[in-house]
Structures
1.
Amino acid sequence: MSSRRDFMGMALGGFSALGGLAALYAMKRSWDPLPSVKAAGFTTVDLSGAQENVLNVEKWRGKPIFILKKSADMPADERDVLVGSDRFLIAIGLCTHLGCIPAYLPDQEIFHCACHGGQFDASGREIFGPPPSPLVIPPFKIDGTQLVLGEEGPEYIKMKEAGVIA
Ligand code: FES
């Protein structure tokens, strides 16, 4: 009898563990809307499904990475990453003041940092408050519609040489 109860307990425990996993998977999917692959310090993100003015947050080496497909009304900037005819902001999602994670406000097309009120425009440039510099651009490479984080591609090197990346 007791072994039957143990079995039932185990079966129920297993069932709720599965439910928990399913919930975690659902959460992960909503945080991670663009398909991505992580391997050996690199993260590859497929940008082909990105939508204009919708912020995607990827994770690379423990840091949040902001990926924003710019809409036509957003001014061109030398920090723009070109993928075909589309323009993207690719930046480490940590405020350059004291490292909080700013939120994106799509109706105003700005990033707002709740810690001390800092703001950045859609190109990641500081426009208000204490942040001393733009959001940092991580090493990246563009391969067709794939963004590879962690590798210094020609686009990144060009930005570095032009002094766009500090
Ligand atoms: S950490 Fe963002 S404004 Fe201070």
Note: The chain has a mean pLDDT of 87.
2.
Amino acid sequence: MNTSKPVDPSDLFSAKDLVIVITGGGSGIGLAYATALANSGASKVFLLSRRLEPLEAAAKAINPSIVHPIQCDVTSPDSIASAVKVVESQVSHVDVLINNAGIIGPDHNQVNKAQSIREVQQVLQSDWAKWDTTWQTNTSAVVGVSAAFLHLLDKGNKRRGWVQGKRETQKRDGSASYDAHDQRTSQIITVASIAAFNRKITAGLAYTASKAGAVMLGKSMSHFLAPWGIRSNIICPGRFPSDMTAGGATVFPVNEIPAGTQGEYEDMAGLILFMVGKSGAYHNGSVQVIDGGRLSVMPATY
Ligand SMILES: NC(=O)c1ccc[n+]([C@@H]2O[C@H](COP(=O)([O-])OP(=O)(O)OC[C@H]3O[C@@H](n4cnc5c(N)ncnc54)[C@H](OP(=O)(O)O)[C@@H]3O)[C@@H](O)[C@H]2O)c1
């Protein structure tokens, strides 16, 4: 390693010139990403979710010339295909896709308080139909949306001078102009959850299982997309303020969250800039746990 090279943090942790697609994004963690990325040099940030109004409000609040709302249901292949067409009509490529959309699913928390085996049975069998929508949104959509954007991620590699298509060695196209210090290839980031590793029921079993599935799919993509030069990494947040967690506790004893509180905007902003910046170029198939130490004090598999 050449340690005499100067390190410029503003270049290393920057979203400069990146085209980024985020599912979800009108609230919570997706909005935090959109804000941090648009304010750190991204050229375009497309926000995809079902409700247009929060997306339009986000674009207006951040910067409407950078942030573009697109109505899209990530559980519908037709809706995803329409969103891809809108993105394609505005840009030639995508550098980063963030699979962030998610729902909480049926609540099984009451199992922890049940006083009889009958009660445990009732809780486990409640809202059975909601398992399907939870899986479709949190798990199947990770593959469905990623698949739909692969050709644009491939073109993102071309923009940074990499050869396109299937390869045996990672190499630059000699005729292209590129920044030799920028080793990034296109990237898919999947927002799963520490629920994927947590054995204690804090949300729902469908949520836990769907997020464990999302982690595995993120890892799997890093394997089968390797010959195509597209990276895949995973973020597993602990508790952060959002529509999903609104009304819940914000302060916690250290035996629940050692940091004492839920996470904040700066925590997510710092992580996403590290991941999309040159700083994250060597990350592929990685899982970034950001939870204030919560998994350390829970029965967990991580
Ligand atoms: N906040 C936390 O503590 C926490 C912890 C761990 C993991 N996470 C994960 O972080 C991600 C973001 O959640 P959040 O906490 O920021 O909650 P949030 O504010 O409720 O955001 C979820 C986003 O997903 C979108 N969405 C849901 N279903 C969709 C669908 N079918 N198609 C398109 N978009 C859809 C929602 O928009 P529409 O309703 O308009 O579609 C919304 O923008 C989720 O994957 C969540 O599981 C959150």
Note: The chain has a mean pLDDT of 96.
3.
Amino acid sequence: MSTSILSAEDAADIAELLREAVLLPHDGSKLQTKNGIIWVTCSDGDKILDFLEHVLNIIREGNGRLRPHIFTEHGGAMVIAEDFPLYPLFRVAELMLAKIEDGHIMKNMDTVILMIHAPCSAAEKAHLNVIQELAYLIRGKRRIQEGMPNLDVACFIHVQDAEGNKVVHYVSSFAFEAWYKKRLERTPALKPTHAETHEHS
Ligand SMILES: [Zn+2]
């Protein structure tokens, strides 16, 4: 699949989310990173090194330990949401949750960084815009918190704009949930139906 370019619609939504303080500058000093972090990210071979650089910078901001325990999947942290539409024949979410729990136990790491990115080929394959990506991301976070309330979970999105500029934003979960509720009232069609992607399930 070709490397896609951020759509004008996604760029406009990201600008709105920045104005609404749903997306914020990252500040690694607010994260507990002294013992490293568990990191869930998209596999994207064109971008993974840039993702890693940003994550290492976030750890550096908090004088943490550069010890990223990495789990990759197409779509990154979106796969943890129970209804993520890719690979419906496989229990990707359950596997990821089990790996996070084992990483926490085996490596004594209490902080999980969940990352998605835009544009993302996996999101494109699943016909998701950036708002839907964020909705899966936050639902994934809530799922981890339900099962493993002792973990700190922080969400981030890596954005590459049409000019090629790359930036990582922190995603405020509560701010997103409040904003998304209002946005769904405005645009009910945003709610994914999965009609096309569940044909094999
Ligand atoms: Zn991706």
Note: The helical segments are 8-19, 48-61, 92-107, 121-125, 130-147, 173-186.
4.
Amino acid sequence: MPTMEPEVIERENRPRLELHERGLDYVGASVASRGIDPEGVISALGDFNVALPSWALGTGGTRFGRFPIGGEPRNPEEKVDDAAAVNALTTVNSTISLHIPWDYPDDPVGLRAHAESRGIGFDAVNSNTFQDDPRTTDGGRVSYKFGSLAHSDPAIRETALAHNYEVISIGEALGSKALTVWLADGMNHPGQAAFRAQFERVAECLGDIHDHLPSDWSLLVEHKPYEPAFYASVNTDWGSSLLLAQEAGPRTGCIVDLGHHLPNTNIEQVVSRLAMVNRLGGFHFNDSKYGDDDLTTGSIKPFQLFLIMMELLEIGGGSPPELAYMIDQSHNLKDPLEDLLQSAEALQVAMARALVVDREALTGAQMDNDPALAAEILMAGFRTDVRPLVAEVRRRRGGALDPVATYRAAGYRARATEERGAEARSTGL
Ligand SMILES: [Mn+2]
């Protein structure tokens, strides 16, 4: 199996070290002048771990087609290997989130041991009841075409519940502590179903799933305004998501996927509201220009990402709170591992920019009704080149000063292609 050798990382870091240290000195002094300890920033960044999604280690696609890159991981074990390669470079992506049935593990205990040997743990497991899975849908007699947890037929709701229970038991074997329900139920046509009846069926089923969870687990629900239900999703917005979480039970949190909002939604405000009532469960990070585009995190709206990080620090009292953080993207053109490396960097940079804001001074300006001063304080953080702080987190833990350049220098994709083949495929049922 291809690996990311520490010697290669060390070799690539060496010629970059001098410039890195000069940058680190400069940003350290600049941040210290605001009364912020750069060591505290480095330490908080090291604790901000973001899970990698098993479905994004291969190329994604659109309705127009898919262009495999070669050497894609063919099974959950190889996905763990690729996640370990990313984490070796970034040091802040030590968990993987498995999607069932796309990554159905035949031997979860063996997979867990393999992951542990590569320094990888398991984040939330994801259930899928928006596709018919030949393993569980009784030779096509049971179908999710008209819904799963919202379906009018109790037998189909039972099948969907059974799938969620199976995913929980797989997750227990893997060492996961949360279930994220991928719910696509809704309507494609006005009049197709009753809003209220669909919602009530889903709420009841989520309550059943909640009550089925092991005692130290949590349940995560994720809203999305449209697709595949193009007229109305049951869990359409953060208000519906909050209602479902409240109905399902106390250990249910809401996932905020950055692409799952109608245009111009103030996502940082949504984050604040959900946290205020203790229902912020976590994030699916990506970026979006028009809809659920699943683009590289921080590539379209880096300022929005920074403002979301500001809210996270508000919730965590100055450091990132413990939530389910995950990247959720589709890599249509880039090498998926390079896209994940860039996303990990964007998340660390956004968090670092928030960490170097003088939050006490910001609160002072807010209380004094001085919006110009508040903007000065906020933008001083956003405009700081925090990249040496972010790189220092990686360097101290054996990671790469320049992850993408190091990944390329290591020839990882070529080695993976040699071992797994140019036609290796990884996504979907
Ligand atoms: Mn998502």
Note: The mean pLDDT is 96.
